[in-house]
Design brief:
Blueprint lengths: L3 E4 L9 H15 L5 H4 L7 H11 L6 H18 L12 H10 L3 E5 L5 H7 L8 E3 L12 H10 L6 E5 L2 H10 L2 E5 L11 E2 L7 H7 L1
Parallel strand pairs: 1-2, 1-4, 2-3, 4-5, 5-6
Helix pairs in contact: 1-4
The structure holds 6-O-phosphono-beta-D-glucopyranose and magnesium ion.
């Protein structure tokens, strides 16, 4: 029996994974290091700090503490200017539909995101009030791939972990959900196709009846 849906934000609810990519690409250019969509898969879902660490590690590049902090500030500046104009048209396919499925079946919904900008983004999308429970990057000590963000969401929803499905588009998020003992569905990111038992191209493909028959 499924009683809770926990959604990652970037790349599941809204197409901002593209904006994160573009912002990191600019930072990579400034750092004079390699970066492309394939390397970006290693960053997806990680916190801002862990993403920069990963970018440097992938390129075996070392910078000072001070530069590190400044690049984090700069990345967020670039990212925020890129998402400045986002609105409902950036909401991904199937979001409204899956929220209706949740309502109809008395399933609680929550956001479990690594982003410190999550609440601001949800407001721009007019979705802020749709999610009573929003756990974001400001509210966890241990970011994904640690399961803390999803465990907090399940606790606040007062749902058992094995009654919740986590919807994720990043490997780090899939690992977090699995470590936490959640059911997990890979969404949109074709790189997850062989990584998860359950994969859907968009939330609009989700069928609760079919899913419950399989578990
Ligand atoms: C995640 C994204 O949702 O949030 C990552 O998948 C991003 O790419 C992370 O690094 C942190 O986001 P922010 O907005 O706090 O920099
Ligand atoms: Mg994501």
């Amino acid at each position: 029996m499924i009683n809770g849906f926990i959604f990652d934000l970037d790349g599941v609810i809204v197409n901002t994974e593209e904006h994160h990519y573009k912002a990191w690409k600019e930072i990579a250019n400034k750092l004079n290091v390699d970066f492309n969509k394939s390397l970006n898969e290693n960053l997806k879902g990680l916190s801002r700090k862990e993403s920069l660490k990963k970018l440097l590690e992938l390129n075996k590049k070392k910078i000072s503490e001070n530069e590190f902090v400044n690049f984090l500030i700069e990345k967020n500046k670039i990212y925020k200017s890129l998402i400045d104009g986002i609105d409902e048209t950036n909401i991904l396919d199937g979001v409204q539909n899956i929220l209706k499925i949740a309502d109809k079946n008395n399933i609680s919904v929550a956001i479990g995101s690594s982003s410190k900008n999550a609440k601001m983004i949800l407001k721009k999308l007019n979705l802020y009030n749709r999610f009573k429970i929003i756990i974001d990057g400001n509210m966890v000590t241990n970011p994904k791939p640690d399961p803390e963000v999803f465990i907090k969401a399940a606790k606040l929803m007062r749902k058992k972990i094995d009654e919740c499905i986590v919807f994720e588009d990043a490997v780090s998020g899939i690992i977090a959900a699995e470590r936490g003992g959640f059911k997990v569905i890979g969404v949109r990111n074709l790189n997850l196709k062989n990584r998860t038992d359950q994969f859907i191209n968009s939330l609009s493909e989700f069928r609760l009846d079919d899913y419950e028959k399989k578990i």
